[in-house]
Protein 1
Amino acid sequence: MPDAAFIYEERIKLIDKSGIQNCEWHIVRNYEDFCEFIDTFGIPEAVSFDHDLTMEFMRHYYDVTSKTGVIEYGNLKTKSGKHCAEYFVDKWRESGKPDVKVYIHSANRWGQIEIKKVLKELLTA
């Protein structure tokens, strides 16, 4: 399996080519760092979400989700990109719903669906 950071970097480059020009990406790799970043810097111009932020979620994907389409959030100890999206939407609302481009770059198609549900208001705005 390729290094996750490499995959992350490549996907961000692809997103940049699709419409976000001349911006600097700040990469955070877990829920706590994501929340700290949003609390410190506010709502960014653009954000891209991955679902499986920890090895626990990646193992769960291969052991359960890839076979069943089910993500057992209640059985997992760490937080995912879905949780980051929930935090983001709350902060976005508190900030007066500023314009922001949102993307999902997760390879986990079931995780993408869960994040889309959370981001529904932003994706249709």
Note: Residues 4-51+80-123 form one domain.
Protein 2
Amino acid sequence: MIECKDEILMIKNTYGKNVWTFPGGGIEKDEDPITAAKREVKEEVGIIISDLRDVGKLSNEREYKRDTIYCFQALVDTKLVSTNLNEIKEAFWFNKNHLPSDMSSISMQIYENYEKQGL
């Protein structure tokens, strides 16, 4: 989750379901989760993040796969984004109190974990 003031950046991918989710992606071989999160955010929305806060991890067993989703939060000073049009169809900053109703179920779980931690 990338946060600027009281807003959170969400994206819609060019592939998969047409739902809002948080920027992120897969971990490459021999890459740690924090490095992967920083790389994926830079690739998808052009934001360089430094300090990440751990928001927990989730298990996902969609499509008969077993994935661990590492969740982080980063604070940024600007809402400037530069989307990778091959991967990102749309990016938008939503107020934390008015998130879209068509969020992915995983994104909803991530946000609930974030709220529980009071970040």
Note: The two ends are 11 Å apart (CA to CA).
Protein 3
Amino acid sequence: MSTPLLQYRLQGKENYRLGEPLIIEFVLENLSKQNIWVLTWYTPLEGLKGKIFEVTCDGKPVPYEGIMAKRGNPRGEDYILIPSNEAVSATVDLSKAYKIQQSDECQVKFKGRIHDFSSTEDVVPKENARHNSLNIPGNVVSFRIADSEPQ
């Protein structure tokens, strides 16, 4: 099995309090020997602008209730350079787009899809019809949501 070009890693705290920000860090790593330009759309690198996470709490799906961005063709600034063997990261507050209640176990997974990438800067941006999508592997982050009152 070949090594993937990119992989993601989610990080968060083990415990959050209800009503407080639910900050998750997203790290996107370039595992290749070449620089890669990645379209940030539909990734946490652009913030929460669509249903990019699968969130479950106590085994039940939590629906996405945030904004849904409409897209034309991307511009150059919609891409980010990830140098060879380096990473970029961003944090998002899940409480801004998901109504997460007190739970013993919540799990969050990025849907794992990059909508366009290139190893050559002069070919980005590309029209939507020419996008080269890529599914990327990564982890699931688990945490608990405690009552907002101290115990």
Note: Residues 6-144 form a domain with the Immunoglobulin-like fold (CATH 2.60.40.2970).
